[in-house]
Amino acid sequence: xxxxxxxxxxxxxxxxxxxxxxxxxxxxxxxxxxxxxxxxxxxxxxxxxxxxxxxxxxxxxxxxxxxxxxxxxxxxxxxxxxxxxxxxxxxxxxxxxxxxxxxxxxxxxxxxxxxxxxxxxxxxxxxxxxxxxxxxxxxxxxxxxxxxxxxxxxxxxxxxxxxxxxxxxxxxxxxxxxxxxxxxxxxxxxxxxxxxxxxxxxxxxxxxxxxxxxxxxxxxxxxxxxxxxxxxxxxxxxxxxxxxxxxxxxxxxxxxxxxxxxxxxxxxxxxxxxxxxxxxxxxxxxxxxxxxxxxxxxxxxxxxxxxxxxxxxxxxxxxxxxxxxxxxxxxxxxxxxxxxxxxxxxxxxxxxxxxxxxxxxxxxxxxxxxxxxxxxxxxxxxxxxxxxxxxxxxxxxxxxxxxxxxxxxxxxxxxxxxxxxxxxxxxxxxxxxxxxxxxxxxxxxxxxxxxxxxxxxxxxxxxxxxxxxxxxxxxx
Length: 476
Fold this sequence. Notes:
single chain; mainly alpha; ligase activity
């Protein structure tokens, strides 16, 4: 066999692998192992090599979605354990892969279907000009880094998927599998942290217990689980064999959220689960097996509540012990309004240092803990306009085709957007915003590949009739 034939065969094998669920599971296992090792430099080097190989061997960039989604989950520490130059060396393979990929593979044509492109670019521009003419204290370098993190990085990944993505597998099944396995990974890490705390004699039911996974604190990882849970139900509607495993996984993820002691996460997770049950019931309303499993699950819930009622009440009581107080957020919201009126056009800027609580700047970004107030306070009217355009484009993309993927993505967004009203998720570049941007890129690719649209306003009967299809490969 010639070298060219060997390389072609190798590419085919890698191509088949990265379009399978086995690849997604492989990324999750690698991430968990690297996370337990607590060596960030080694983790980055391993991930960089894997990404470099994929970028060189495969034109399709859709397989980058599970990789980018789960790569941040290797972080198990709060401080950088090595010099900056060592991290620069570690990412050389992925940088080389990007250069070779761009040089060797043809790009997709960007047409009118890329309806999120201009709004995302406008959002970056609004981030860049935020804080102009403001008298509020700012750190220009921190502001620039935040623009890269919140605006530029997610946009580049969106563009990369949009330019090189191919229809080599069922988009819905592939992205849903990514979210389901990401939820498994996050839950496994959370249970590992819980087990470590219990081994040390810590009462994880106490409100003073704050679980930290490294890459995500007690607000971030419940947000991830909230975004992943609806895709468990995506598989429930797809095949009856997934009903029981999906219910068990969802229950485990709910336990992880319960012990995060986040009131907002708990409230919006419950709302998401209600929406999930409604959606999957619409899809399976004529399936007798679904109703049998539904009845068994309801009975199991009653039994669980009966045996663990006291513990559940104790944990929830600890979580809501301060009732519905704001945890200082009300002062942050007042601060945001003050900064808006000081500089209505551009706000206080992405490098704003803040006044109320210096704890909110430990991450390098003064968080005002609300999508609305963060936009108002740091970006002003220009940011409000850019954000509105971004949201209109986002949900036009979701509702332009009511596929099962779009439906359950929207259910996930109910929790994400709702929780972000009192949390920082919208301005968290990795993993939250990046995941949303990459999903939108794949939805645009799917919309371009499928002729005709299912417009907003279809009946529940038509929604329920949306076919799931089967997982199908197509050789390019």
